[in-house]
Amino acid sequence: MVYEAMQMESADAIGWLDTGNSLFRSGKLEEALRCFDKALEIDPTLVSAWSNKGVVLAKMGRFENALQCYDRALKIDPNHVRAWTNKGVALARLGKFEAALKCYDRALRIKPDHAVALSEKGALLFELRKVKDAVRCFDKALKIDPTDVTTWGYKISSLVLLGRSDDATKCLDEALKINPESEELQKIRKLLLPRSSFEGG
């Protein structure tokens, strides 16, 4: 009976977690936060609820509170890749760049092919003007997930900064073959191509 009750409580917690995830995707942050809190009342060891609660708080700009959630998640599961990645994002937003890079590296030691961790690390390196290192991260990330428009944008911008305009244009062409409807890539295209290319268009 005790085991069955625990199973029911766990199922309820997962239900609240799933509802919170749906609300978050709909942009209803306060409601999502309440669902994650409810899930954690039922099961305080639910790692995904702690991690996702942190994501909501970070979206609200409450980065310190988000970090507390990620730390709770990592205390339960030290190998939770998303929590390490999300913690890195929060630390970067707070200007704690070295600590953020350590979080991304920790995530990538656990899962070397984690595209989001690679992309976020690359984005931070780009902001720190470590552009060559950033490009290496973007290359790895895009091999894993070639549909990530934001990563393509960062890679193209990096190549331009490195003075590799031809490579940037080739990269853009490749990105547009994969993501032809992307408005973000179309904007980059207009910035990259000379005005003469659009004459008569």
Q: What key phrases describe this protein's structure?
A:
single chain; mainly alpha; Serine Threonine Protein Phosphatase 5, Tetratricopeptide repeat; 2 domains; elongated
Summarize the model shown.
The chain is mainly alpha-helical. 78% of the residues lie in helices and 0% in strands.
Plain-language structure description:
The chain is mainly α. The protein has 2 domains: 1-111, Tetratricopeptide repeat domain (Serine Threonine Protein Phosphatase 5, Tetratricopeptide repeat), CATH 1.25.40; 113-201, Alpha Horseshoe (Serine Threonine Protein Phosphatase 5, Tetratricopeptide repeat), CATH 1.25.40. The protein has 11 helices and no strands. Helix 2 (29-42) runs antiparallel to helix 3 (47-59), helix 7 packs antiparallel against helix 8 and helix 8 (131-144) packs antiparallel against helix 9 (149-161). The termini are far apart. Mean pLDDT is 90; it is low at 1-10 and 195-201.
Chain-wise SSE layout:
Layout (H helix, E strand, L loop, with lengths): L1 H24 L3 H14 L4 H13 L3 H14 L4 H13 L3 H14 L4 H13 L3 H14 L4 H13 L3 H14 L4 H10 L9
Helix pairs in contact: 1-2, 2-3, 3-4, 3-5, 4-5, 5-6, 5-7, 6-7, 7-8, 8-9, 9-10, 10-11
